[in-house]
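Students often ask why we bother encoding 3D structure as a string. The short answer is that it lets us treat folding as translation between two languages. Here is a chain of 263 residues written in the first language.
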Amino acid sequence: MRERRLLAVFAHPDDEAFGPAGAIAKYAHEGVEVHVLTATKGEKGEWQQEKIKNQSASWRTKIKSEEVIKITEKVKIEHVREKELLASAKILEVAKVEFLDFIDGTLCNAVYHKLANKVIQKINAFQPHVVITLDRLGVSGHLDHIAVSLTTTYAFQKTTFPKKLYYECLPQKIRKNDPVMDTYFIYFPEGFRDEEITTRIDYSAYWDKKVAAMRAHKSQSKDVGNILTRLSKWPKVDYFILQMHRGVPVKLPETDLFAGVKI
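And here it is in the second language, the structure alphabet:
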């Protein structure tokens, strides 16, 4: 196990690439052991693979042909997106990727504690010095993102080893200058003021890795193209809010997620 360890907790495959891939690549390249924990496999469907495993043969014979097609396509998507994340992680030099096997679109109150307990188990096993996740509005407003942010925050509070918890976030000045976001999901949050952003990680040296990691998500090629067009105009910086910390001296603003952390 390497000396410095970082855990990144996300909701879906591609969150790591579309989000703080530059920072992930930077720290992994510098020798930090980076693990990515992903709640779902990005299925985007109501059909759970467990339904196929757990139902009897007689039940299967009663499924309408179109329903069988839905199940089959869901399993294919799950497998494809899992492989895409693994390919992206390899590009970013991530040491380990783990899936928590929740279903895309179902991260609601009913599974909060189960999800949080799995994150707690991972933190206790891996003992990261730094944990990163999405901000409390999920950056984009995606409800799965919000659930992961809340449960990761809870997991940080219920464990003792990690020293710092960061929220990946988007500055208001970038959000305001990108009208495409107004039609993304139902409501795309306004982002954060400059004075609210505590930590900026310059990843200009790792831009090519971020681009390659995004393109590894071939099933999301339309989004990849649109986002890369916008990202190319933005500063090559990943933005974070230091949400919680313990046992470390903090001097803000920061340019290093491990600032103050003694190994």
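Translate back mentally: The first strand starts at residue 5 and ends at 10. Keep this in mind for the problem set.
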